[in-house]
Predict the 3D structure of the following.
Amino acid sequence: MPAPITQWSVARSPFLQALKSLKNAAAKRQGEEAILSFEGGSILIELGGGSVTVPAHGICSVQLRVPGQMLLNLNSVMPVDDPLLLSLEGAHHLRVGSVSLTCHAQPVGSKVIDIPVNAEPEDIVRAMAGLSYAQIEQSGLLAVHSHALSLQQVSQAAALLAPFGITELDLLALIDQKKSLELETLL
């Protein structure tokens, strides 16, 4: 089965106008994420309590969480191409013309879990503490949560082993060594 198309084209002027109107709504909310929902021939952009819909051409339905301020700053570095080409590269990069934004992709309609894109493992674990496994899986953040849990466990183990001179880096090196040994045995 072919991979779903993960690119959209959008008219430059309406997209820039949408960002400009959201800039006012998000002026006092630094560090917040923007939610971009690509579905049904349009992009719904939500940020700072405001939302704007922009017509787009594309097939794939997906919801992206991107750093709000980086999205708003696209006005200053936006390519002059019309229409603009937006594409999802993997699950962690949204390319707008030649500019790449860090993002988290999740299914449209997923429960939005409010975590910063560059969150520390403790922040991620804390944000998802009250959620069930099914809710985290539905949000599309299961891999992010699992990775954060393992890093948090490494930090806790390093704190306990600190009197013996063992650091987080030492533990991470041991884990990487174990993974490479497991990979070698599989090959």
